[in-house]
Amino acid sequence: MQKETLRAGLFGRPLSRSLSPEVFGIFARLTGAAISYELRETEASGLAAAIEAAQAEGWRGFNVTIPHKRAVLDLLNLADPAARAAGAVNAVRFGRAGLEGLNTDARALLQAFEAHGVAVQGKTAAVFGAGGAAGAAGWALGRSRAATVAILARDSARAAALAARLAECFPGTVFSAGPFEAPADKPDIAVNATPIGMYAAGAPPFAPGPECVRADFAYSPGGTDFIRAAGPVSIDGLELLVAQAALALKFWAGLPPGDIVKFSGEALGLLRARLAKGQ
Q1: Sheet of 234-235: strands edge to edge?
Q2: Whether 69 is catalytic
Q3: pTM > 0.90
Q4: 182-192 per-position pLDDT tens digit
Q5: Looking at 69, 123, 186, 250, which residue is catalytic?
Q6: What domains lie within the chain, and their CATH numbers?
């Protein structure tokens, strides 16, 4: 009997650097599932129509990236708490309730903290950016009971609004907003939630100290400048990308949690090896 193909894809712009099709291709080989994954660059004005077209074509669900993570939230019939608090969603399925959304950025970062043995509770953190990834990072840090989280961004109003929204969700964590510059106090944890290092060269305006744990949502085949800086633990964008893909597969198709953990590690290793050969 021929396997039913799970059809999905990614909406965003630009998508030229996206590795998502490769990641889902690796998951297809490891799990034996038939997966078709497409990239569809979409303008904001055409997003709703593109989603309707995907549903008509039989897609099971889709991922969302810059600049649509916030806009898609308004189209959902059902969203998880992380998506609502972060103000962004990046995995959606065509479910019983209609469009159902999940913030896999937040859960991927939570998983990475646990996998690397990072004890977030009581620690200080800085998040660079105020978009969807920054909201997800703030949610993961608040959920992990960080003592303080500074949202550092060029858009001061947006950063302040995000900090206020997260503070309502996690009253035990002190959230603040500040300019896009190095924090006055050296944080225990620093997260790059901007595209810097992926679509644009460079790193956030901050030199991590030797004890600072770093996480970067941006990814580059050779590692971003932010991740290559000295430090005890680094969580790079490739690790988070693979974790997000695994979470999306579980969301769309119900892949067992045990398989998610097993195949995520294998998929990350294969992806790193493929990129190393291409350098």
Answers
A1: 174-178, 148-152, 124-128, 189-192, 213-216, 234-235
A2: yes
A3: yes
A4: 998 899 999 99
A5: 69
A6: 6-104+245-278 (3.40.50.10860), 106-238 (3.40.50.720)
